[in-house]
Specification:
This protein is of the alpha+beta class and about 525 residues long. The protein is built from 16 helices and 23 strands. Helix 5 runs antiparallel to helix 6 and helix 5 packs antiparallel against helix 11.
Length: about 525
C-alpha cells in the first residue's frame, strides 16, 4: 500500500489558512483591505481580548449583493481579477479571493452587508457556510470574526502574549490609517474608543497618528524618476533615530521591500549621522506592470523589475536642494560632533570613579573611536562608546543613578502603539529614573529623568527607550554614552577607563559587543621581530 494519500478538505483549508492568517493582526489586515477596496470612506475596527474573542470591521463601502455573499467564503472566488493578464496590472489591495475563506476556516464569521436592494447576512463556521438571510444593515459591510483559532488549538497555543497581539493589531491599524488619510478610521478596543481619525491631509494624519512632535522632525518630499513618482514626509537633515518609524506605500499598498529601506538609507548619506536613520511616511506610484506583488501569501512584499531605479528616485526626492550639503569630516574624526545637535546626552561629571590604585597609563585616542591604554600585561585598545555604555549600564542596574526633576515638564504626544509599550515597560522606565504622568488621550508629561541624561535630550531618550527592542537600561546607557568620532580630553578618557577597569566584567557591552582588544607585550615583540619589549 502506498504512503501518499490525499488530505481531507478540512485539513487542506487549515493549511491554506495558516499561510494567510498568522494571528489576529492578519485578520485585521485582510478585513481593512476589503473595506478599502469597497471604496469605504469610514472604517470602524472593534477588537476584544486582543482579537481572540472578537474582531469586527464595519465600513460604509459599496456593500454586497446577496448572491455574492456565500461566494465570498469560497476560496479563489473574487471580483478583482478575471484572467491571467490581470495579475500584471493589479490595482486593488486584495485579489486572490483567499482572505474570507481562510478566516472562516479557523473561526466563526458573520458577514452582514447592505446595498440599495436590501441587506442580508450569512454565517460561516469552520468552513461551513450557512444560508443567506435578510438582516437590517445600512449601506456597507460588517464582518465579525469570533473565537479565532477555536478549532486550531496548536496555532492558538503558540500565539504571542495578548499585549504583543494587541501591539501587532495596532501596528496594522496605524499603517492603513497613515496610508489612507482621506478615510475616517475608528478603533474601539474592549468597548472603549481609543482612536478616531477624521479625514485629513497627509501631514495632519501623521500628526493624528504619530503625534505632532514626530511631524515636527519631518519635512515634505517629492520627486519623479522616469515613470516613478514619490511623495510623503521624511526626517529633516540631522534628525532621525537609531530605530526609526518607516512606512512605505506602493500605489497605496503598505509594503516591505528591501530596496526601499536601502534606498532611503543611501539617500540620507551625509545628512544623518550614524547610527541614526531617517523616519519616513513615503508613497510611491509606479506602473502596475513594473513590480510583482504576488510573491508572498499575505502580499507584504513586492519585487521590482528594475530595482536600481528606486535608488535614483529616493535620491532625487530626499536630497533635492540638499545635494551639496555633506557632513564634512577629517580622516578619522567626525567634526559635526562638536555641534549641539550631536553633543553627548550625558553629564560626564557624574561618573567619577571611586579612588583606586592606578595600574594603567592613557596613551591617547585613535580615530575618535579607541582609547589606547598601557598596562603591565600589554597594550589595550578600548572602544570609548562601548566602555562608557557598560559602566553606565552597571550603575543603572544597581540603582546608583539618581532621578532628576525637570525644571519645565515636557509634554509628549504618543501613538497608540506607544501607549501599549508604555504600559508594558512602565516599571523599567520608572526604575531607570523616569517619572511621568498620563493625561487624557495618548499624552504624557515627563516630570523627571535619569540624571545621566541632559534635559534637552530627555524626550528623545525616553522615546528611544520606549520604542527600542533592547532592554530599557541598555538603550539609556547607549544613548547616554560618548559617540564614535567624538574627540575626548585626557580627563574624560581617564574617567572612562577608570570606570571600566573598576568593573568585574568589562569584556562586552550590554549589547554583547567587545569593549577591549588586548595585545600582550610578547605578541607585539614577535610581530616586530624582537625577543621582548
Amino acid at each position: 500500500m502506498g504512503k501518499i494519500h490525499r488530505l481531507t478538505e478540512e485539513l487542506k483549508a487549515k493549511i491554506a489558512a495558516g499561510e494567510v492568517i498568522e494571528n489576529p493582526a492578519s485578520v485585521v489586515k485582510e478585513l481593512i483591505e476589503n473595506s478599502l477596496d469597497a471604496s469605504a470612506s469610514k472604517i470602524v475596527l472593534r477588537v476584544e481580548e486582543a482579537g481572540l474573542s472578537l474582531i469586527s470591521v464595519l465600513d460604509d463601502g459599496e456593500g454586497m449583493e446577496p448572491e455574492d455573499m456565500p461566494l465570498a467564503f469560497d476560496r479563489y472566488s473574487t471580483s478583482k481579477i478575471h484572467r491571467e493578464s490581470d495579475l500584471l496590472k493589479i490595482r486593488t489591495l486584495g485579489f486572490r479571493g483567499e482572505a474570507l475563506a481562510s478566516i472562516c476556516a479557523v473561526s466563526k464569521v458573520r458577514l452582514i452587508s447592505g446595498t440599495e436592494k436590501g441587506s442580508f447576512t450569512v454565517e460561516c463556521q469552520g468552513g461551513e457556510i450557512g444560508p443567506v438571510r435578510e438582516f437590517p444593515h445600512p449601506r456597507g459591510t460588517t464582518v465579525e470574526v469570533r473565537d479565532l483559532f477555536y478549532n486550531f488549538p496548536v496555532r492558538r497555543k503558540f500565539l504571542s502574549s495578548p499585549s504583543s497581539l494587541l501591539r501587532e493589531i495596532t501596528r496594522v491599524f496605524t499603517t492603513y490609517s497613515l496610508g489612507y488619510p482621506e478615510v475616517h478610521f475608528v478603533f474601539i478596543r474592549d468597548g472603549r474608543e481609543v482612536r478616531n481619525y477624521p479625514p485629513s491631509s497627509l501631514g495632519e494624519r501623521i500628526a493624528q497618528v504619530m503625534g505632532r512632535e514626530f511631524l515636527k522632525g519631518l519635512r515634505e518630499i517629492s520627486g519623479e524618476y522616469g515613470q516613478l513618482r514619490i511623495y510623503g514626509y521624511s526626517s529633516a537633515p540631522g534628525k532621525g533615530r537609531p530605530r526609526p518609524n518607516q512606512f512605505f506605500f506602493l500605489n497605496k499598498r503598505p509594503v516591505y521591500n528591501k530596496e526601499f529601506y536601502g534606498a532611503l538609507k543611501a539617500a540620507y548619506s551625509g545628512l544623518i549621522q550614524s547610527p541614526n536613520q531617517p523616519e519616513a511616511v513615503i508613497f510611491l506610484e509606479a506602473p502596475e506592470d513594473s513590480f510583482d506583488v504576488n510573491i508572498h501569501p499575505s502580499k507584504r512584499e513586492v519585487k521590482f523589475r528594475e530595482p536600481t531605479a528606486i535608488f535614483s528616485l529616493f535620491k532625487v526626492a530626499v536630497k533635492g536642494e540638499e545635494k551639496e550639503r555633506v557632513l564634512k569630516t577629517s580622516p578619522g574624526v567626525v567634526s559635526d560632533f562638536s555641534s549641539p545637535e550631536y553633543s553627548s546626552v550625558v553629564s560626564h561629571d557624574l561618573f567619577v570613579a571611586s579612588p583606586r590604585e592606578k595600574d594603567y597609563r592613557i596613551v591617547g585616542q585613535v580615530r575618535g573611536l579607541f582609547i589606547v591604554v598601557e598596562r603591565e600585561d600589554g597594550l589595550y585598545l578600548v572602544d570609548q562608546h562601548n566602555a562608557m555604555e557598560r559602566a553606565i549600564y552597571e550603575r543603572l542596574k544597581k540603582g546608583d543613578v539618581p532621578s532628576q526633576p525637570l525644571l519645565i515638564p515636557s509634554v509628549v504626544d504618543l501613538s497608540q502603539e506607544d501607549m501599549i509599550l508604555l504600559r508594558e515597560k512602565s516599571e523599567e522606565l520608572k526604575s531607570a529614573g523616569f517619572s511621568y504622568e498620563e493625561l487624557s488621550g495618548d499624552t504624557v508629561v515627563l516630570r523627571a529623568h535619569p540624571s545621566i541624561v541632559s534635559a534637552e535630550k530627555v524626550e528623545e531618550v525616553f522615546l528611544d527607550a520606549l520604542r527600542g527592542k533592547e532592554p530599557v537600561l541598555a538603550t539609556i546607557a547607549c544613548r547616554a554614552s560618548v559617540k564614535r568620532g567624538e574627540i575626548l580630553s585626557m580627563e574624560r578618557m581617564e574617567r572612562i577607563v577608570e570606570d571600566l577597569f573598576s568593573l568585574e566584567n568589562y569584556q562586552v557591552c550590554p549589547h554583547g559587543r567587545p569593549i577591549v582588544i588586548k595585545f600582550s607585550w610578547e605578541e607585539l615583540a614577535r610581530k616586530i621581530g624582537r625577543n621582548k619589549l
